[in-house]
């Protein structure tokens, strides 16, 4: 049992780490929220960690959305279509996630983390020129991709930015900077839908969520400041962070497989 003061410090520090990584490399940090809540902060139940992490990710995403919107990075029409449709998927996915065995869910989460690391190591697609298309076919395509991305986000309790950014680029042809800004509306909304679903079942630790968000705000500021200095080394940072995700993923797989596979 973890004492309240060390646990509070662990929650603030873990939130700061997630916020820092999000500010530094522009995505992927939220996937560390659940492992940190479980193995560093000491949340006892996987479902509580997922619900608490989803709420923290949602609030941090909305906070970052404000900054991107002020810089004109958000394509609101595409962002709203993606967020609205994907929220339906997030509600469905989070309902399935709550009903799924917690340790088996963590095992699948570990596999997802390995997939994310591979995606982060792949070369970025070239930025496309010109305004994104906004015809009916594009909106339908955007909605279909959003439904799948939202379901994955809700099932695993993650923000899903690493899925949403390439999905927006694929569906609309928008430049990456606009996809990053526009994705934050979906990340925040998916996380909020997942958090509300988990909250309805009493699966959120509100105090830890508040401490995690507090750390995330300060960590995000630090990450953004450092990112401006290390912009030329963004690919190196992605590789380092992908390596961290692989290490954490292997630990999650080890811990969860030990719980679901009987010994002897």
Automatic annotation (TrEMBL):
How does this protein sit in the membrane?
A: Multi-pass membrane protein
Which residues are listed as membrane-spanning? Answer: 20-41, 48-68, 74-93, 105-123, 143-165, 177-200, 206-227, 236-254
- Tell me which UniProt keywords the record has, alphabetically: Cell membrane, Membrane, Transmembrane, Transmembrane helix
Tell me where on the tree of life, at the top rank, the source sits.
Answer: Bacteria
Q: Which InterPro entries match?
A: TM_pro_TauE-like, TSUP/Inactive_protease-like
Subcellular location(s): the record lists: Cell membrane; Membrane
Q: Which family does it belong to?
A: Belongs to the 4-toluene sulfonate uptake permease (TSUP) (TC 2.A.102) family.
State the name under which the record lists this protein: Probable membrane transporter protein
């Amino acid at each position: 049992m973890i004492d309240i003061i060390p646990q509070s410090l662990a929650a603030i520090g873990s939130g700061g780490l997630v916020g820092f990584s999000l500010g530094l490399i522009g995505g992927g940090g939220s996937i560390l929220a659940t492992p940190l809540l479980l193995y560093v902060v000491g949340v006892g139940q996987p479902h509580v960690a997922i619900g608490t992490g989803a709420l923290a990710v949602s609030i941090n995403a909305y906070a970052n959305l404000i900054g991107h919107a002020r810089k004109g990075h958000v394509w609101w029409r595409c962002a709203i279509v993606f967020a609205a449709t994907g929220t339906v998927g997030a509600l469905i996915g989070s309902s399935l996630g709550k009903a799924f065995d917690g340790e088996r869910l963590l095992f699948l989460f570990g596999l997802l983390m390995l997939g994310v690391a591979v995606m982060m190591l792949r070369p970025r697609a070239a930025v496309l020129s010109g305004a994104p298309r906004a015809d009916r076919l594009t909106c339908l395509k955007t909605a279909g991709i959003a439904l799948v991305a939202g379901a994955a986000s809700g099932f695993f309790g993650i923000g899903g930015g690493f899925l949403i950014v390439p999905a927006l680029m694929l569906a609309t042809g928008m430049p990456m900077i606009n996809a990053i800004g526009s994705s934050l509306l979906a990340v925040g909304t998916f996380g909020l839908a997942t958090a509300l679903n988990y909250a309805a079942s009493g699966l959120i630790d509100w105090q830890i969520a508040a401490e995690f968000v507090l750390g995330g705000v300060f960590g995000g500021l630090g990450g953004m400041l450092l990112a401006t200095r290390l912009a030329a080394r963004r690919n190196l940072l992605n590789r380092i962070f992908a390596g961290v995700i692989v290490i954490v993923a292997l630990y999650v797989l080890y811990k969860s497989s030990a719980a679901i596979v009987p010994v002897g």
